[in-house]
Specification:
The chain is of the alpha+beta class. Helices cover 31% and strands 39% of the residues. The protein folds into 2 domains: 101 residues, no CATH class; 65 residues, no CATH class. It has a 4-stranded antiparallel β-sheet, with no helix packed on it.
Amino acid sequence: MYAIVEIAGHQFKVEKDQKVFVNRLATEEGKKVSFDNVLLIGDGNNVTVGAPAIGGAQVGAKVLKHLKGDKVIVFKKKRRKGYRVKNGHRQALTEIQIESIVASGAKKAAKVENKGAKPAKAAPKKEAKKAEPKATASKAEAKPAKKEEASQDLSKNTVAQLKEMAKAKKITGYSSMKKAELIAALS
C-alpha cells in the first residue's frame, strides 16, 4: 500500500516503514506527526484519487531526527564585467519514518494557530467600532459639505457630461464653453 501525501509544501510517494527527508518540521525528535492532506492512495489494483485530497485519509509518521542537507554552491557570474558571487546553502531537513497509512475514518490533524494572529484579527474589529462614532458626528457637518461636494463632483466629470448637465439646466451657449466655464455656469 502506498500514498501520495503533501508534507511541508512538497508531495511525496510514501509506503509503510519508509524513511523520508522533508523540509524542517516544527516537531521535536521522537514525536509522532500525522498528515491529512493525502492526494492518492494505491492498494494493489485499487487506486483512490482525491479531489484534491481524500477525506478521512491520513498518514502517520515519527520524527527521527533534524539535520542539514548537503551543501549546495550557488555561483553567479557575468562575463567580462568582473562580477562573481559565491554563496553556499544547506537546507534544514527532518527525517521521518512512515508508520501508518489510513484510507478512511481518520480524524483531522489538529492545526496549531499562531498566538500573534488572533489579536491581529481582533484589531480591525475595534477600528471599525471606532470609525462608526466618527461617521455619526460627521452627519451634522455633511449638509453644508454637500454644496462643496457638488462643485468637486463637477470637476471630476468629463466635458461631455458637463454639457449634458448644462443642456438640462437650459444654459445657452454651452457648446462653445470650456470645462472651467461650464463648471462656473453650473455652480
